[in-house]
Each structure stands twice: as structure tokens, then as C-alpha cells.
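User: What would this chain look like folded?
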Amino acid sequence: MIKQRHNGQLVSHGTFLTGMIIALALAFVLVSCEPEPDIVVVPDDLNAPGAIPAGTYTVYHYQQNVSGSHENGDYTLITADTDTDKVLDVVSSPASLANEYAGFTLKSMMVNGTVISLFYDRNTITYTFNTGSQGTFSDGTTSKSVSGLYGTTFTIPFGVSSGSHCFVRWISVDGTETLDTDEFGSENVSWNAYYVSSGDTPANFVLVPAGTFMMGREGTTDAIPHSVTLTSSYYMCVHEVTAGEYFGENCTLGETFDDNPDGTEADRAVYNLSWYDAIVYCNKRSSAEGLTPCYSINGETDPSVWITAAGGSVPSVFNESWNAVVCDWEANGYRLPTEAEWERAARAGNDSVSSYVYSGTEDSSALSTYAWYSELGVSRVQPVRQKSPNAFGLYDMSGNVWELCWDWYALYTGDSEINPKGSALTGQRIVRGGCYNQPASSASVNDRIKEYPFRRGADGSGNHFGLRVVRNVQ
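Assistant: Here's the prediction, encoded as C-alpha cells.
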């Protein structure tokens, strides 16, 4: 006979089975003498008027977790909604005790003595995307639908082509909402494609299309590859801000050249700017052209007020007020690109993260066609638009001058992001794109450096900071 050890005793299978049968029989007798077990109400019984006896109860409400299911009981208690003295004078239905939670439906209930637990499951939500008569998806269809539980994520469809019209973003049928997240909301929604005419693009700008792309580079610690989605298209200037444009807005800080042997001085990229200088320029140019400025400090959009409050000049040291500048992301004026907007534009559809990628090419031997960098032996900042543009029609995204971005510097986490705008204040702002006096590797679209917002490019760093402006599509 086969034997095994049980509770430290060596017993035969026969002895063990006999003991188990006796124990089960005893358990049956004990259970039959105990009070009735918990009352479990299944979904079909939620409106039964006599499901809950009259009495005083403590009522708990539980919501299904995003990753949970009704079957595995993965729920979170909504502590704030607990009712510790709920009096029921008459027999009641579970539905009469339920709270209204957007995106949730009461699915089950459990009564354990004087404790009532109500369980709410996430609703299945459907989003429908319609291109309308002006466009189609890449597969030729004009409509797509996606479904999932409230609060879960989905893949936003892009790839809308429309002939003479350009896709900008998804808006709700009633025009009150813009899709700016990849999480299902609490209600079904039909989204319509919003377009602008290609002829509406401002002069010297291109429309950078909304979409999902890969950002970063493998093998780095501060640029871990991850997926980024920009839900709205935006306008970006095809060239870096020139000396002529910058000083034409009465911006006095920055560098130009004393000598101008070939008459191209005004067409060179302005350089040796600080981040503070850049936001002054953006607002001055916006106001001069009748646009709504994007930046405000202490509620004021006029840079002359900022400068007066800072002691009469753009700060050359850290300034708490200037660091707390607020961007109006809905305004139609000029602003710096976010780091994600910059890399999306520089990549121009190239999603490679395995090596150095330059704006216009992955082939380092072809880089001189697209960029100015130190290996070419140039000794000064160059006029803009002398090299070939990338696939989006943007010049000098690699090389010439470093370009200031909106974001505070931080390491990437590797998590996917929607419309990222950087971290909270970390002390230094992001700068991108490389420079004429820096090696080719710095011209990679996934190379990142950082600088203090008050520091002007050549202040001991050997870098030359300029800028490129973007505008929102209204």
C-alpha cells in the first residue's frame, strides 16, 4: 500500500481517505447548524423588490479596476461613499441602493449579515471615427469603430488622406470636444475628422501631421525609446528664426555678425539666445502680427511688463516668475515646440530607434546634404535653407544652431505618452538638433542636451542656441 506523510504522521492512502470522509461529514453537520450563508444577488435579481430584508446596514460600493474583471473580483472600494447607518424600513432591491457612477453599471451585490456590498462593472464604450466626404482612411474606408471598457486605452486611428484638405484632429459630432486622450470616456462618442485647406498654411510653415511615432534611441539612459501620440496637427516654420526676423521684433539680445561679406546676414539663424529670450520673441512677434500670445507670466502676456518686473532686462540668472511661465496651448500665436513636437517634425516619418537618425537620412555619409556640423569645417552659423529639407519640408532640423524647446529636462520613463509637454521644473530646458560647431552625432534627431533657461548659448558652453517656432491649427 502506498503511504504519504500527513501532519507529521505517516499514513496509508486508505487511512488518509477514511479520515477525509469523516471530516467532510462532520463539516456538513456543522454547516447545516450555522446561520444561512451570504445572500449573493446576481445581475438578473438587481431589481427584485424583496432581495434585501428590512434593517440597518453598512453599505459599501466597489468599482471594477481598469485591468480587472467581474469574474476575478478585482475591485476597489470607494471609501468616501460608504454609508454606515443605512436604514431600510421595507424590503428593498439592490438597485434602490446603487449610486450613479459615470462609466459604471451595478452588476452584483452581496449581503453578509448587516453588511451590503455593491459591485459596479465598467461599461463597454464604443468610439466611431468618421472621415466624412473629404477624406478616407488608408484602407479606403470612411469610418472605423473601436470598443473597450471605460478607462481602458485604445489606438487612435490616423492615416486620413483628403486631397486638398489636411487632417488636423478628431472632434465630437457636436463640436464641443476634441479627442486628446487614448482612454475611453464614460459615454459612446462619434468623432468627425476636422480638416483645413492646404492653402491655409501660413507662409514659410508646413503642417506637421498628427499621429503616433517612436521617440528616443536604444542604448541610451536619458532617451529610452517609447511611443508618443500627438493628437493634433500643428504648423512649424520651415526654417530657424533668422537674425532679420529676430531683431525685426525689437529683440535686442542674441548674436549677429559684424562683418557681412556676402550680404546674407539677415538670413542667418539668430544664435546665442537664452530660453528666456526665446519666449520674449514669441510673444512680441505674436502681438505684432495680431495673434494671441501663448505665454504669460503672472497673468500678463506683454514681455515689456515681464522685463520691467525683472529689473529692466531679461533675467541672466534664475527667475522664479519666469520659470513659472504659463503656456496657453489653445492660443494661435507663436511658441516653442514641445520636445515631442520637435522630434516628430525632425523624424518626418522615420520611426527607427536602433541607431543615430538624422533629419532627412539615416545614412551618415549623406548627412552633409541635410545639415551643417563640425566635420564640414564651417566656422560660423549659416544662412537658413541652404541644405535639403526633410520629408516634411523642414530645413536644418539637424545642425546649424541648437533649437530651444518648451520642456524642462527629465529622463524618459519608457512609458507611452499622449501629447507630452515635459516634466515639472527641473532646472534646465531641453535643446535639440545639433550645431554647426558640434559633431555629426549631435545632429541626430534623438540626441538631447539641456541648458539653464537664463543661459545664452555661447556663455562658456561652446553651443549656440537659436529657435524655431510653431503655431496651433485653429
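Residues 13-33 form the longest helix (21 residues). If you want, I can go into more detail on any region.
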